[in-house]
Amino acid sequence: MVNISKNPMGVKKLDLIVVGGGAAGYFAAINAAIANPNLQIMILEKGNRPLAKVRISGGGRCNVTHACFESADLVKFYPRGERELRGAFTRFQPKDMVAWLQERGVLLYTQPDGCMFPVSDQSETIINCFLAEANRLGIGQQFGAGVNQIGSEDGMFKLILSSGEVLFACKVLLAVGGGTQSGYMLAKQLGHTIIPPVPSLFTFEVRDPRLEGLMGVSVPDAVLRLPGEGRDKKKYLETNGPVLITHWGLSGPAVLKLSAWGARFLAEAGYKVEVLVNWLPGETLETYFQKLRQAKEQNPRQHLGLGEPAGRIPRRLWKSMVMFVGLSEELAWGEISRQALYQLAEQMTNGSFRISGKGVFKDEFVTCGGVSLKEVDFKTMQSRLTPGLFFAGEYLDIDGLTGGYNFQAAWTTGWLAAMAIAG
After folding, report:
1. What is the largest CA-CA distance in the chain?
2. Both 148 and 213 in a single domain?
3. How many domains does the chain have?
4. Residues 395 and 355 in one domain
5. Pairing with 303, which of 220, 273, 313, 370 sits 20 to 30 Å away (CA)?
6. What is the model's pTM?
7. Do 103 and 421 touch, CB atoms closer than 8 A?
């Protein structure tokens, strides 16, 4: 820990230093300045440009938030932080963020899937709004300003930058983002526990003959399960939704959800584990076996290659499963044995695929892990260990599914911290 000495002459002393010039950091600084214009605030950003993650979010369009306006429903999209965010979202949630931006001339639109974007479809719209507000409010901004050390004593914080510059502040907000040990070092210097970060929101690398040549095939709804999740081998972690077959394996919303909820289990398994896939939600091995027997009885001369009896999955995927169990698409239903029908039903409802690694979801990187939530007061986002220290954004052990949820957690925690700091 850095030893705190009396603030020497000529060394900057501020009311608030925000460490991290990302979404949570800027939003907190701006709202603190609005609530209390007398505050002297400085944002320190290690990189050379502010709001880097905002810039790349949503393919450069910035998925600002999600059109889910009930806090009880909203928290269900957070694998980590659900309990803590429940109360937080009653104070600042997506509708509040929409109104906040609208007051500053930034309008959003909602896609059919609930994701909300600026009508310009440009992330620069959000960035320019934040920078304009920060400049209007006289908030100091330093780039290329990494913090090497931080200490606290007698209600004062001392920060030593990588440049050697020394700053003093009455309050500090850590909003460095997630996933970097150097960033977490600051919280550790102030006595906080860090839950080891591991990736969340990623695709599955799967090398399997059943998927070869099927790149681009999409199934609108499938059920994915990870057997043996955690230490209880009888438990299954299950998600459902669209699945996309890629040249490296499996992707799509169902896969991303499973990667988020199973992030720590998958990391502990070295990303080498079996995933069970039911391509026909609502069907079990037994119910689907009976439907295949009915298809055989009703259409004994029809060829298998015409597709799944009810047409519920793409024909290319169906043919691949038919070939995998040793059948020819030229065979007629009447020629198929009971055992072969059972094997086909098993592949369609409980196929096991070996995950051999993880891929990256677009250019976005979300982590599971960060500052332990037990050590933070979620009414104020203040440290329970160090008075005057606040947290916001992915620096905490909070992560959401894809769709604007991670940004909303950043806006909410940043706003709560700002209100407490300005208080």
Report:
1. 94
2. no
3. 2
4. no
5. 220
6. 0.90
7. no
